[in-house]
Amino acid sequence: MTMDEQPLIDVRVQAEPFDVAAEAKRLSAGSDVGAVVTFTGICRSDGGRLNGLELEHYPGMAENEITRVAEEAARRWPISGAIAIHRYGTIAAGEDIVLVVTASAHRGAAFAAAEFLMDWLKTRAPFWKREIFADGTAGPWVEAKAADDDAAGRWNLDKAAE
To answer: Which domain holds residue 20?
Structure first.
């Protein structure tokens, strides 16, 4: 990627499943790409305790905020592209919830940008989730975990949100 080229930033919030391999292939197409990092978040069953998750978002705001943070990742690291896809609605255990794909000439930048985006998505993105238990009942809206906030602290995410 030359200095004049802008990285590909593709952000989607959707109910439909996504194709991890196809999205990774889109970012690996560039001639200067030496590394593609993918992270897929999957809805777990928590030992059979859960049927899935219910995810809600603030339409428009979620996409704009994720795009802004993906662009911040491109300013912090020399990436050629970033894709962030987050699903909403009812997600069954075993289904994909979120995908982050980053590409760069070098692995360090691709890994760092992917971790930065994922930490922001986990701690700051305008999504709300609650667990759907095996008996079909829904739990309360899930609060953020201190461990996630601690992990995100290394990025100075509050500054990225400005």
So the answer is: 8-147
